[in-house]
């Protein structure tokens, strides 16, 4: 489990911000290592929300197995002008949100 940083008035804000960013980067590194072990390919990672970074993975049959086992869920469905119907899946790993997009469903 990743430690939480509590605001400390004696610590300058930039130090607190950078510490939060560093912890988020470490969570991403841990998650990427586990995703690699699970045979999943990482496409990108975002630190925009340091409290829960987002990692985008390439869609694969393993994603379907995560859905089937209940370890992941579909959270968004829609229609794109160019790609047609899509759905997006997600699960949590090491404090990160892991997401992927499937087209044609």
Give a verbal description of the structure:
The chain has 105 residues and is α+β, with helices and mostly antiparallel strands. The protein has one domain. The protein contains two helices and five strands; from the N terminus they run αββαβββ. It has a five-stranded mixed beta sheet. A hairpin with a 2-residue loop joins β4 and β5. The radius of gyration is 16 Å and the shape is elongated.
Structural class: alpha+beta
Q: Any idea what the shape is?
A: elongated
What's the number of domains? Answer: 1
End-to-end separation: 36 Å
Low-confidence stretches: none
SSE topology string: HEEHEEE
Please count the helical segments.
2
Number of strands: 5
- How much β-strand is present in the residues? 25-35%
Helix content: 25-40%
What is the gyration radius calculated from CA atoms?
A: 16 Å
In what order do the strands lie side by side in the largest sheet? 1-2-5-4-3
Produce a short descriptive summary.
The chain is α+β, with helices and mostly antiparallel strands.
Overview features:
alpha+beta; 5-stranded mixed sheet; 105 residues; 2 helices; 32% helix
């Amino acid at each position: 489990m990743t430690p939480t940083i509590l605001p400390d008035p004696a610590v300058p804000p930039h130090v607190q911000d950078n510490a939060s960013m560093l912890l988020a980067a470490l969570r991403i590194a841990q998650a990427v290592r586990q995703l690699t072990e699970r045979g999943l390919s990482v496409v990108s990672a975002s630190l925009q929300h340091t409290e829960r970074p987002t990692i985008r993975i390439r869609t694969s049959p393993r994603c379907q197995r995560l859905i089937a086992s209940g370890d992941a869920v579909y959270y968004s469905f829609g229609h794109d002008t160019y790609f047609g119907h899509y759905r997006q899946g997600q699960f949590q790993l090491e404090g990160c949100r892991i997401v992927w997009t499937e087209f044609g469903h």
